[in-house]
């Protein structure tokens, strides 16, 4: 049965098999726990990258407001507002990152053989 999930390794569509494993056309295989671990880790990484980018953007905008004032096509107060909005967005993402970390911590740790080479979450 084809799912809407993408393989974390190659992005092909995953198909669910009778043994409750998920496999793609490239024969990457995942148990549901392995898939949950993999996708949760990917989401957590993406969230932290977005948080860092938003915080860096806020620093840049505040710097421009302080050092360039109303030059370069934007008023200083608008830059400060945009910096504040970026920090607010980063705060929201931190909440999601915390939840993602809690979900990750709650998942059972699969035996190492199910992570790679065991035919259940990695490529044989």
Shape: elongated
Percent helix range = 55-70%
Number of strands: 4
Strand adjacency order, main sheet: 1-2-3-4
Distance between the termini: 21 Å
Radius of gyration: 21 Å
- Written as H for each helix and E for each strand, in order along the chain, the element string is EEEEHHH
Q: Would you tell me the overall average pLDDT?
A: 85
Low-confidence stretches: 112-124
Helix vs. strand class: alpha+beta
How would you describe this structure to a colleague?
The structure is a single chain. This protein is of the alpha+beta class and 124 residues long. 58% of the residues lie in helices and 10% in strands. It has a four-stranded antiparallel sheet with strand order 1-2-3-4. A hairpin with a 6-residue loop joins strand 1 (2-6) and strand 2 (13-16). Helix 1 packs antiparallel against helix 2.
